[in-house]
């Protein structure tokens, strides 16, 4: 009991000291010029409703949770969670992306993309793309649509037209092209290894 009382007394005495340190740190942040001020990394609200992008608008916090984008997405560098709307885009994305018109990720994508046009820039993708037109720089997973394009692919491409520069897996469709394979074109089924 004496030890518990001593611990409680120490906590009461130490609390104002730590609070003063936090206030001093907060004052030092206010003195930093705006160009060097740290950017908040994560949005705390579980849902973010995006509006049309204004070209001069600053980048908004990264999103964790649900992002609803009507009509376009705003400048989010990183999104983790669910993205639903007309046109979704991000630098980095982890989760489920479902946009009616286009899903566009510039650098790294992990998860599912569902829409008319799905793209993962010149970067890495781990997951599934389902749409009319699917493209990725490097994909490990599945592309299913009318047209599937990848530079490097590991997995399955299933569609009317499938094209890959390098392929370790299967292509199933009417036109199947693997540029670095022994058999570059093969209808119905093409295998790269």
Short descriptors:
193 residues; 60% strand; 5 strands; elongated; alpha/beta; 15% helix; 5-stranded mixed beta sheet; single chain
3D architecture notes:
The chain is of the alpha/beta class and 193 residues long. It is built from 1 helix and 5 strands. Strands 1, 2, 3, 4 and 5 form a 5-stranded mixed sheet that branches.
Q: Which helices and strands occur, and which strands form pairs?
A:
Layout (H helix, E strand, L loop, with lengths): L1 H29 L16 E4 L12 E7 L8 E96 L1 E4 L9 E5 L1
Parallel strand pairs: 1-2, 2-3, 3-4
Antiparallel strand pairs: 3-5
Structural class: alpha/beta
Number of domain modules: 1
E-strand count? 5
User: Which shape, going by the Cα principal axes?
Assistant: elongated
Number of separate helices: 1
Q: Gap between N and C termini, in Å?
A: 70 Å
Q: Strand percentage, roughly?
A: over 45%
User: Largest sheet at a glance?
Assistant: 5 strands, mixed
pLDDT averaged residue by residue: 77
State the helical fraction. Answer: 10-25%
Low-confidence stretches: 11-29, 35-46
Order of helices and strands: HEEEEE
CA radius of gyration is 24 Å
């Amino acid at each position: 009991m004496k030890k518990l009382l001593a611990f409680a007394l120490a906590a009461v005495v130490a609390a104002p000291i730590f609070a003063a340190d936090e206030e001093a740190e907060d004052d030092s942040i206010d003195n930093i010029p705006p160009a060097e001020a740290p950017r908040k990394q994560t949005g705390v609200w579980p849902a973010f409703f995006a509006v049309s992008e204004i070209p001069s608008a600053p980048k908004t916090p990264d999103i964790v949770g649900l992002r609803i984008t009507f009509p376009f997405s705003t400048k989010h560098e990183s999104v983790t969670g669910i993205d639903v709307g007309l046109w979704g885009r991000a630098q980095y994305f982890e989760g489920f992306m479902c946009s009616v018109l286009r899903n566009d990720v510039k650098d790294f994508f992990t998860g599912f993309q569902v829409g008319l046009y799905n793209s993962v820039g010149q970067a890495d993708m781990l997951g599934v793309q389902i749409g009319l037109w699917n493209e990725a720089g490097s994909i490990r997973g599945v592309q299913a649509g009318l047209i599937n394009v990848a530079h490097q692919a590991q997995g399955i491409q299933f569609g009317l037209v499938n094209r890959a520069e390098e392929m370790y897996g299967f292509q199933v469709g009417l036109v199947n092209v693997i540029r670095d394979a022994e058999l570059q074109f093969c209808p119905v089924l093409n295998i790269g290894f």
